[in-house]
Amino acid sequence: MMYKQEIYDYLSEKGIKYEATEHQAVYNMEELDALALPYPDRDAKNLFVRDDKKRNYYLITVKGDKKVNLKEFRKAHGLRNLSFASAEDLMAIMGLIPGAVTPLGLLNDEERKVILYLDQEFGEGLIGIHPNDNTATVWLKAGDLADLIREHGNEVNPVDI
Q1: pLDDT for the residue numbered 30
Q2: Less packed terminus of the chain by CB within 10 Å, N or C?
Q3: Please, which residues bridge with residue 21 across strands?
């Protein structure tokens, strides 16, 4: 399992430029919004969901100010009914706790079972995500993030939300 320092080391090994902002632990977007972060308009919100058969898992990563209607999202992408995955599933699959959900958690997904849906609005610009720990935010190019996750073996789908 990779956590904060291992993520920093991994990004450096891969030659991915990033900036890290250390901060107090945050568990939701409201707490994150209260922090003085360098790129607040580039923060990501992450929803870890599963289908009604508990067979398929998805991570929906969108700009922090967006709302995601799971029913509309499901219909738009031809998925079964969706609901939030449990804290137990989150820990078992990505080694994360609620409040620390991040696409970088997919690097801990040994079975490569989680599909990432990444908001196209990030484009090739920065995205702010946790480094598998909710006491920091890592800023890197969204394209570098998508490449890293694909290289790991998880599916990445750019989406308009």
Answers
A1: 85
A2: N
A3: 137
